[in-house]
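Why do we care about 3D structure at all? Because function follows from shape, and shape follows, mostly, from sequence. That is the central idea of this module. The next example makes it concrete: a single protein chain, its amino acid sequence, and then its structure expressed as tokens.
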Amino acid sequence: MIEIKKLNAGYDNSQVLKDISMRIEIGKVVSIIGPNGAGKSTLLKSIFNQCDIYSGDIIYNGNKITKTKTHKLINLGINYCPQGKRIFNDLTVYENLEIGLFSSKLKEKEKKQLIQEMLMRFPMLKEKENDSAYTLSGGQQQILAIARALLVKPEVLLLDEPSIGLDPKTMKEIFGIVKEINKKDKTTILIVEQNAKQAAEISDKIYIFEDGKVALEGTKEILNDTKIKNIYFGGR
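And the structure:
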């Protein structure tokens, strides 16, 4: 579904990604793990046209989308849930969801129907739909951010560090939701995650980034590599 060919990208004149090549197949969950500063988030931002691309190609369903405007990418079926929840604290839960359909060409009645369906899917949001988003717990805020991204029914969902700052129980819940989105909605997911072990459990393929490059790729069995275990699991 998405093919990345020798991608070089970064911010202004600061290069982060160096000749990245990878494939994200339809219907799969693909994880990107690696140390801070390895270029994981920059890869998602490159796909979603949120950083500078110097060279290389991004191909989606056979069509080159390199540097395609973000709102057009959403219409093509790609959406992005950024790191840090990125909700609007001064707006209600419902208003946050409305923003998710801002660029949609649907009629208002259709938009309201989609929002109600999403609220029913996540009852904890339904209970608080008229409350300010800042009253939500960290886990609820992350669910709100994911729900907002799902409103446009993306074929591909780019998830950036969905478990960051969450306690183990809530983290497990979030990963369960990610798995459900993949299975129930048939959504292809590219996820950047610091929690390598949890990410591996739900992934069909894993890419390990180091210094802006793909250092290793494979299934979750690659995490049994001694070097990788020492880096991510303290040798366990």
